[in-house]
Amino acid sequence: MIRIDQIWIATEYMDMRSGTDTALARVIKVFGAAHPNHAYLFANRRANRMKVLVHDGIGVWLAARRLHQGHFVWPSADAAKQLTISRVQFDALVLGLPWHRLGEAGIIKVL
Hints:
Order of helices and strands: EHEEEEH
Radius of gyration: 13 Å
Strand order of the largest sheet: 4-3-2-1-5
Strand content: 25-35%
Number of strands: 5
Structural class: alpha+beta
Number of helices: 2
Helix content: 10-25%
């Protein structure tokens, strides 16, 4: 439906009450710009809620996801402020699975 060429994760937490304008301002602050066909992911402090902002080249889309049990496997804020993940890793992340163990070809590896 919406083409996404690159998926980025912000390691710093975001207030989930933020709307589209605040999330877009956060993307610009953390990533420098909102590039077309890129998705930007943010989580709350407990990592049980996530927001995804996508710039489709015309406007922006903001989606939210919440886990009722457990939390998303989120990189620590001590890591880089931003990192990129593959589509396979994104699919695992939104389900609450350990996405960082998936390789580019969907191969599970031990860290």
